[in-house]
Amino acid sequence: MKILLLAALTGLVISFAVPTFAQQKNTDDTKIVQQIRALAIEYANAFNRHDAAAVAALFAEDGVRVSGHGESHGRPAIAKSLAKYEFQQWNCSDLLKRIDRVLPVGNRVIAQGIWSLTYQEQGFAKPTKPDDGHLSWVLVREGDTWKIARETTSASNFHAVAD
């Protein structure tokens, strides 16, 4: 009888504990999603100011950015690529990044979403054109901050031209 009562009591405790742990995990996940979406806004704001160094600072020290212009490894290379292509050659502006999916995986986070911007090739009197595509981030923690370890973007209207 005591064993049956102990088993019932244990089951009752577990039934209350599991939702509590699940709520804590969901709270943590919600906080991570908010942080990653805030990072996307910070990225877009720095980009729209044409501040290549501020965008690069959002990456991990050894971060990688993969775009239609190739791969850039490390913050200095990321800043240089942004300045050369997005800001000088294409005069990109009005960047919006929307994170649709955030998946915590161990001590990393995978985020996926879409982006859009407008561009105008320098030296030409062409009107501003829209562009958009998909993005994928792998993020890591550096202290209390999420940093982009790897960014991969794909464009719907790829406009890059070989140097």
Q: What does the main sheet amount to?
A: 6 strands, mixed
Termini Cα gap:
82 Å
Discrete helix count: 3
Sequence of strands across the biggest β-sheet = 2-1-6-5-4-3
Overview of this protein structure:
This protein has 163 residues and is α+β, with helices and mostly antiparallel strands. It has one domain (2-155): Nuclear Transport Factor 2, Chain: A, CATH 3.10.450.50. The protein has helices at residues 2-48, 52-56, 75-89, and strands at 59-67, 70-73, 93-105, 108-119, 129-142, 145-155. The model is unreliable at 4-25 (pLDDT under 50).
Topology:
Elements (H helix, E strand, L loop, with lengths): L1 H47 L3 H5 L2 E9 L2 E4 L1 H15 L3 E13 L2 E12 L9 E14 L2 E11 L8
Parallel strand pairs: 1-6
Antiparallel strand pairs: 1-2, 3-4, 4-5, 5-6
What's the quick description here?
This protein has 163 residues and is α+β, with helices and mostly antiparallel strands.
Attribute tags:
41% helix; 163 residues; six-stranded mixed beta sheet; alpha+beta; Nuclear Transport Factor 2, Chain: A; 3 helices
